[in-house]
Amino acid sequence: MLRKPIVTVVGHVDHGKTTLLDSIRQTTVTEGEAGKITQAIGASIIPVETIQRVCGSLMKEELKIPGLLFIDTPGHAAFSTLRKRGGSLADIAIVVVDINEGFMPQTEEAIEILKKSKTPFLIAANKIDLIQGWEKKEGTILTEINSQHPRVQQQFETKMYELVGKLSEKFDLNTDRFDRVQDYTKQIAIVPISALTQEGLPEVLMVLIGLVQKYLEKCLECNLQGNAKGTVLEVKEQKGVGKVLDVIIYDGSLKPGDPIIIAGLNGPISTKIRGLFEPMPHSEMMEKKAKYKSVKEINAATGVRILAPNIDEVIAGMPLVSCRDKEAKVCEMDVQEQLNDVIIATDAEGVVMKADTLGSLEALISIVKDKDIPIRKATLGNVNRKDLVDAESSYEKDKLKSVVLAFNVEGEKSTEKVKVIHSNVIYKVLEEYETWVKEMRKEEEEKELGELIKPCKIALMKGYVFRQSNPAICGVSVEEGELKTKMPLMNKTGKDITVVKALQEEQKNISSAEKGKQVACSMDGVTMGRQINEGDVLYSSISENDFRKLKELKHLLSKEELALLKVIALIKREINPMWGV
Prior knowledge:
This protein is an alpha+beta fold and 581 residues long. The model is unreliable at 33-40 and 75-81 (pLDDT under 50).
């Protein structure tokens, strides 16, 4: 028997993954999502009748498969958590890319994951309707393209071959428009579509089914009488029923009464099925209003809701198997080994992470690890006091690690020493963390910069000597930089001559004076007419240590300050050629 192929849809945020599925299912899942971005892994059963309706006369070959099982993923990283023993849960993938924006980071990472897992895929070049001047026509997508104005056709071809060029250059992939592909074993098909207007939709399904039936038939063979194997997509609370499990079954069959074993964080969980409920065709399992029907048996591949006792500790992402009693020990070992394959490795120091499901947690770990951010602890559930204590233990060594990254969970908020970042959009968790890190680093750098002697140039004004010595007081004009109290000053030969004791503006004491200001400056250890004279130009005397730090923080200095820093360095090197080197 051939099972339904499991198809995953991946791509960059807002490039149209869920809209593509909506068009096939004729539903509106996208509108109800947080930030219109898929945040849970959902499954949709697409029956043969729908495939035939969408493809129409284009579907010339006989359908051997009993339909399609689509999985919509929350971005690139969660795709890698949709696994079964020995590889990916998906048989084939559709990579959705906005033809106008091209390949974005999540699209590129999705392709890398697909290549790594050796999952075959095709590319849906979406949003052709947004090409300037594009007009929707009747007929196939190729007829539509050829019916466009020559200028629009030229724009379209340019965008298509930008995609082809990028795939070749970045991923070493041989790709072409689907109607120009000579050998599907060596080339990847690009199908131009508009998920919104449904243009190109028949062609996407036609190419997908053609690939499945020609090259993946052997992979779809399954023993319908064998033990079921699956992955828990979500654990839900159903009104009037209690906890239920939404599961993808990729092998075997299940019936009410069958014993099942599910991997648990604290050991295998054994239970028996009380009820099986299959989503109605086109229903999306993650939708709250999804409709289900009670069934006496289900066969792979399908999405199914399982009602069973003792499942309170089951977590999304866990492997599940059905098992006869005499094989229970073997099954327990199998599911726990699969769970052990899920590495939530933690470092001695790092951020704390919380998520609602195992798949979400793995996805978060994946994107955080990609950025080389160490993880101290990664667990499931709401943010609690213990998480804040764990995060705060990093505060003394590194304030930037005194953080809790929380996806799709509630709980404790930020404290004076711990930053808690909550978001129900997975990529925003990291985005907000990186923004906060930049702000904190800038704050720390500015604080460090404030403690250094910065470049400054002043001129002693003629006719404004108020006191000759003890201390000498005269009017000065700040030519460049900022003059501060306690700033050491040198002359144009590099000789240290004095330190700014005090500054006054309109008879009021001030601590600093910026460029353009004229102030009274009090200086110790010098006498007007001896060490300094009216009209002299003086510079801040920067130590070698401060000079090196200023070079590290040069992005915080103005062009004028950088230029003056070079002048001061040259003056210093007249005395010591190796100064600051």
